[in-house]
Amino acid sequence: MGITDIRTTWPAWTGRAAAVWSAAYAAGAVGAALSPGRAYGYALGAKAHGTAVEWAVAGLYTAAAALGLLMLRRPGLRWAPATAWVAVAAAFVSGFGFLFSPAHLLDLVSRNQDPMDWAAWANQGVATLGAVLWTGTALAYRRRARGTCPHCGGRGHRARAERRTRAGYVAVAALLPYALLKSAWAAGARVGYSGSGRHPGLDEHYAGDQVIRLYEHGVDLTVVLALTGMALALVLSLPRFRRLPRLPLLALGWAGAGAFAPFGAFLLVYGSLAWAGVLDAGTGGHAPWVVAVAYGGFCFYGVALGRAVLGFQRATRRTCRVC
Fold first, then answer.
1. Do 117 and 207 belong together in one domain?
2. Membrane-crossing residues (predicted)?
3. Quick check: 309 and 159 in contact, CB under 8 A?
4. Which residues contact 184 (CB under 8 A, 6 or more apart)?
5. Which of 177, 185, 139, 131 is nearest to 22 (CA)?
6. pTM of the prediction?
7. Cα atoms in the 13 Å half-sphere on the side-chain side of 190
8. Are residues 121 and 182 in the same domain?
């Protein structure tokens, strides 16, 4: 089956593929729970044998497999699409680390990193594939239930240009506090930082010599990455960039949105609770407002990036060949 066939026939096979994937992933969780060896990414904290998490994962995806079979046999169930989105969320959480796996490239400029757990990485990649399959299943089932084209929804979606542009600017604004604060620290300021380290926001135990050298010259590597993320949001939102290769931009956009939105939400809640005095927890020498405002901005960036990439996807979508 070629790429063109996958694009045109996906509503017909994603449901069955999602059910098979769920059963296989559940079987893997059972195997991990029963084996005395490694957890292979199923258990939290890399605990290997018989943990409650592994059995819970097995039960969850067994139920997902049953849901997939039910959706194949019983079209038109009103509650099925919403339940399928729960399966999407579960698979996404299981594969969350895979979306951050490009960060391991930073090992080239860092040191003292923990060794890469390739088994867990592969597990998370498989889980991410499951999230994609269940997303296709949920979309196709809901569209069939509504009597619209399962391929495009039958609406010829076209996002308004001003909304796409606004999403890109919101994404840029969400990362500005982080970029400005980290740049100020690299320039010698210590606002929002009360730790004992010589370099605020930089862990010298892990940072490589090149990173420290750049930092001492006023360049924080993570600021460079933040600027790259801003550029990606603008490319996805501004009409002048629609002629760029579509699939790589969609892959980068959705991966970034899926990784940063929940990660930033956690930091936003954690920092806000610490800032309000509800949570008495350490923040590594950073003021709680730094965690809430600067790092919590990743949440708004992820959401805005998701809106921008959705607009880009709809604006560059070709005419549906089916309907």
1. no
2. 52-72, 84-106, 118-141, 167-187, 221-238, 250-275, 287-310
3. no
4. 191
5. 131
6. 0.74
7. 8
8. no
